[in-house]
Inverse folding.
């Protein structure tokens, strides 16, 4: 009798034609995300390493219940799609961890304004960005300039700068008058 749990995976397109979101019926990371924009950075994630071992993979982003995989522009999804599904399934069935080592980073204290910015990002912006297979992470705020990290499908999306300026920056400026500019780092 086979007692192996069947893992359900479905895919969703993203605004970035070179990124696909693989949505699972299980939690991968509870309270964080993990971004691996290139293979050498993936050492702390056996899952990301497994995906980077496939031909044509350029980035892996792991969210709460999804994995966004980015590919080279000249690689077709048809040529790697099944291999990605197999790699994800094999990893999850193996029982290996998603992340290894000490991934926690010490957080510096935030001002009240920075806390307000992070609250707006967490409540209003990150859920929309996550639905497209990415994430947006607060980096810093200084002298009216907010620096954000775009991750997953958003990091190299053709429309990411328009979204950053026309969407995120304009929304934040309405709620935080002292904000002058939002930039991606």
């Amino acid at each position: 009798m086979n007692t192996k749990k069947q893992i359900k995976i479905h895919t969703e397109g993203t605004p970035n034609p070179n990124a696909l979101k693989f949505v699972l019926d299980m939690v991968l990371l509870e309270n964080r995300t993990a971004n691996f924009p290139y293979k050498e950075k993936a050492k702390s994630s056996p899952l990301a390493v497994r995906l980077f071992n496939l031909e044509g993979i350029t980035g892996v982003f792991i969210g709460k219940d999804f994995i966004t995989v980015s590919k080279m522009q000249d690689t077709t999804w048809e040529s790697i799609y099944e291999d990605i599904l197999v790699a994800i399934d094999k990893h999850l069935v193996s029982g290996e961890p998603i992340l290894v080592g000490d991934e926690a980073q010490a957080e510096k204290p935030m001002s009240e304004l920075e806390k307000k910015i992070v609250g707006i990002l967490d409540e209003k912006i990150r859920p929309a960005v996550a639905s497209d297979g990415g994430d947006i992470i607060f980096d810093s705020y200084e002298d009216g300039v907010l620096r954000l990290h775009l991750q997953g499908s958003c990091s190299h999306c053709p429309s990411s700068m328009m979204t950053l300026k026309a969407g995120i920056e304009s929304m934040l400026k309405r709620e935080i008058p002292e904000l002058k500019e939002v930039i991606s780092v």
Observations:
- The domain at 9-94 is CATH 3.30.1370.70 (Ribosomal Protein S8; Chain: A, domain 1).
- Strands lie at 9-13, 19-24, 34-36, 57-62, 66-71, 134-142, 145-152, 181-184.
- The radius of gyration is 17 Å.
- The longest helix spans residues 112-131.
